[in-house]
Design goal:
Elements: E1 3-8, H1 18-28, E2 39-43, E3 48-52, H2 61-65, E4 71-73, E5 80-82, H3 92-96, E6 103-104, E7 110-111, H4 121-125, E8 131-136, H5 140-144
Antiparallel strand pairs: 1-8, 2-3, 4-5, 6-7
Amino acid sequence: MPMIYLRSEFDLCTGCGICLLVCSKRASGGYNPRLARLRILSEDENLVNRPLVCTQCENPFCLQVCPVQAISRNPETGVVLIDKETCTGCGACVSACPDHMIRLDNEHKADKCDLCGGDPLCVKYCPSGALKLVELVSKQEVASK
């Protein structure tokens, strides 16, 4: 199955935060970086900024632990999605995510990157090209490169 996911390149990230702003605007309707579905980890001592994004895991723990099956994978794109109507807000997926990329939103429903339906705004507006949308047949291709 072809998969799409975000790849971040920390060596290109300037830490400008534009990705956080456009993501939060789409996700919550306002410009609040804390509500973005990605984060930037700044390592001041090394002068490095690391964009942290959902990696759309091949075997997502969040999907496995959801007691009401509110999390599924789009069979065409491989994107892991949350059905907010089904989600009970128990937080099991939040605890299970190894990258800490799922949070509970203001309605206490699980929230994560959905790649903006296949055209991620963070990629489109990143001025340095630190975020890229990648399509793979499998994640093993990344390891071999």
